[in-house]
Design a protein that fits this description.
This protein is mainly alpha-helical. It has one domain. It has helices at 7-19, 42-74, 81-96, 105-125. Helix 1 runs antiparallel to helix 2, helix 1 (7-19) runs antiparallel to helix 4 (105-125) and helix 3 (81-96) runs antiparallel to helix 4. The structure holds fe (ii) ion. The site of fe (ii) ion has 6 residues, from helix 3.
């Protein structure tokens, strides 16, 4: 079992982010044309939150299974605690979005920040350490 970069997942994350109309680097909605678009739609918001949660669940499960196999093979304490904590924190943040009754700027910003973190910080610092590491199962 190995973990390779997941381009379809990355493309979906970019699409979710674009669908919510929150451009990278934008800190508020002032002057943002997307305010009249899908980012204000509860249906679109819920759809994106569910899709984001599903992507996390599938990807993180695969990664953590690989971490478990690597730890077992090495026979020592886990090297991946901070990686797992990062997964748990991202899952907690997206879980809290299920309780939202309308898509406020703050909640949309939370999703955009979460996707940016996942793609541009988590993947290069944590996931990259799993890529190309094979285990016999
Ligand atoms: Fe990860």
């Amino acid at each position: 079992m190995t973990l390779e970069s997941d381009h379809p997942m990355e493309e979906k994350l970019v699409r979710i982010r674009e669908s919510l109309g929150c451009p990278k680097g934008k800190s508020d909605c002032s002057g943002c044309e997307s305010l009249t678009g899908d980012c204000r739609s509860m249906v679109n918001f819920e759809y994106n939150v569910i899709e984001l949660f599903d992507l996390m669940l599938r990807r993180f499960s695969k990664e953590e299974e690989l971490m478990h196999l690597i730890d077992a093979r090495r026979g020592r304490d886990s090297q991946f605690e901070s990686h797992k904590e990062s997964h748990a924190d991202m899952m907690r943040q997206v879980s809290e979005l299920f309780a939202v009754d309308h898509p406020s700027h703050l909640k949309i910003k939370t999703i955009c920040n979460l996707i940016d973190y996942w793609l541009y910080e988590h993947v290069p610092t944590h996931d990259v350490l799993l890529q190309g590491v094979g285990t016999r199962i």
